[in-house]
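Task card 7
Instruction: Convert sequence to structure tokens.
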Amino acid sequence: MEKVELFFIPSPLMGHVGQMVQLANLMVTRFHHLTVTVLIMHLPTDPIGTDYTNSLDDHHDRIKFIQFPVMDPDSFPDCPTVGFMADAIIERHKPIVRELVAARFNGSDPAPRLRALVVDMFCTPMIDVGKEFGVPTYVFFTSNAAFLGIMLYFQTLEDEHGQETPELANPGPPLIIPSYAEPVQPSVLPYVLSDKDAWYKRFIRYTRKYREAKGIIVNTFRELEPHALLSYDDKTPPVYTVGPMLKPEKPTPNNELLQWLDGQPKSSVLLLCFGSRGWFEADQVKQIAIAIERSGYSFVWSLRQPPTENQKGFPREYTDYNEVLPDGFLDRTAGKGKVVGWVPQTAVLAHVAVGGFISHCGWNSILESLWYGVPIATWPMYAEQQLDAHQLVKELGLAVEISLDYNQLNKNQRLVLAEEIEKGIRQVMDNNSEVRAKVAQMKAMSRMALEKGGSSSNSLRHLVDDFM
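Output:
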């Protein structure tokens, strides 16, 4: 079979890079005529992400990485948030990517042929590069099928019906949205859809470009989101479900936290982890600590400090947890739990001692929790996570609720009280709950989807046939 090359262009956001690397691994392992070149952009204000992307190497002879230099963060003075900075970085790399694509057509060696670009959901400017050279471009959508559906639906309301969709977040009756089986409360519409700058300057622009793609690849599986996958209009390109793909982590040999978990009983430990950008103010931290202590459960708590202004939303590590925790908390819980900074989340969720997960409901984290059969208590923070929490709790019955509408960017965000948090902890740690049973069933389905003949395995094969 003819040897062909694919260019993968992930966003500089760490969770997005990891998913695309996993897709590359999956493709070259199953299809020996494919080679993948991954073009890596860096987000200069994210040290953990930069460390992760720098660790990527050519561990497979048919996956190559091109690492672009880190740009000066001070050269982005007009980017108020991480998202706007990522967009600016992507736009600045567009001429560089164009040169790389052009070189594939101007060189003397005809093989392997560049057959397609696969671009992250935020890298839609690169679709123009593909068009210039007649190379089909596919969008890799790192969130779920339901969120893709609401983006497409809102774009249609805007462009064909004149609806200013951010207004739909105003208090009012529940919204009927095609990609969600249950009515959506306006309060769970996330910032990226309800804030006019985020929607008009970023997300509607991405969505319009999705319509131009040859196909859309989604990190989900049919058994998890059957309703959403049947909801798209006839202007949507073909959608390929290839998940669940988990972000590969660096090995963690001799990790003290994992060694401590080795000594804990099965399903006895609660994990609290809120993603690479999750943090709380001191008064909220104290409420969480009170709830943990009252519950009596063993725990691992990834606790990080609010970011400074120049960190563009990425939290810092504490040098002394006592400065934010209640007096004596660390002493009283010394035998029961661990308060730590950044954690190897996938490795922790994979450990048999972990029985519940308080999560920000990022899509990576949700897929990891389902893959390892660990139920979630929802505490969304940013991006599309409020809708993810709604879907898990109200539609799928795969999580319990602490909050559905918490928003880190809301300066008037109410305090979530210890009583509410403790209730969520007890529900998610209940070994006999209906939610735990449903998560166990979905764990089995997630693994079957990737096996030969499974829904995602078949969809991946159809995608590669389309490349050819």
